[in-house]
Amino acid sequence: MVMARLADDLRAEGSEFHALLETLSEQNWRRATPFKGWTVDYVLQHLVFGDWLNTLSLTDPEQFSAVMARRMAARAEGRKTMGLEGTGLQVGQGPELLAQWYDRLGRLCDLFAGSDPKARMQWVGPDMSVRSAATARLMETWAHGQDVYDLLRQPRVATDRIRNIATLGVNTFGWSFQIHGLEPPGPAPHVALTAPSGAIWTWNEANPDNRIEGPALDFCHVVTQGRNIADVNLTVTGETARYWMAIAQCFAGAPETPPPPGARSW
Question: What average pLDDT does the structure give for the chain?
Fold first, then answer.
């Protein structure tokens, strides 16, 4: 049941993003988003690759390992590659790319829906549960969708699907420090967030001296590094909470830097 709901959330997030991308002109596909200057084309290619890797990990772990080995060997030599050589995966551009991504995402959602949430699967970093993998795909889809909304200066209606992202953000408290080679300066803060529906979501022990409260949407923007903490309406109390919000990162990979204050606060 939990995976069916999570797969439905991912599918709905993809459908919303797909509807936005269908409105793009040819020129907009080549425009740079606020995220690392990635074009819309490249953002979607990144999502295609991530969805394909998840599918590969679930259905063909041996090939997944081979792709990862090629990528690591190439990067050790200073070459950047996605490791697609010999896999048969090809991606287009613009509307063709959009159709490829949406089809592959739908198939991945079907796989997630029928999977054991506690089953372990290989990933780019440490192995993780299928439930965590599906949550990460939803986070990536939502966060990169925000890159395009920001590029186009279009408003976006938040839904309670972001609870998945908020939970991931809370659960990666220790990870945010670990990737910087740091130990957390204290216990995880109490987090109390107001959902788009008006519900109150809470995590961790209540602590008036170490807490974060405010809109769930703003918290999700910060942990996905779509907004600087200075540009959102979160109340952050205590040294540990302030330190975390300055470097929060709920996604895998090397440590990244949040956008400067004002850079994405349109």
Answer: 94
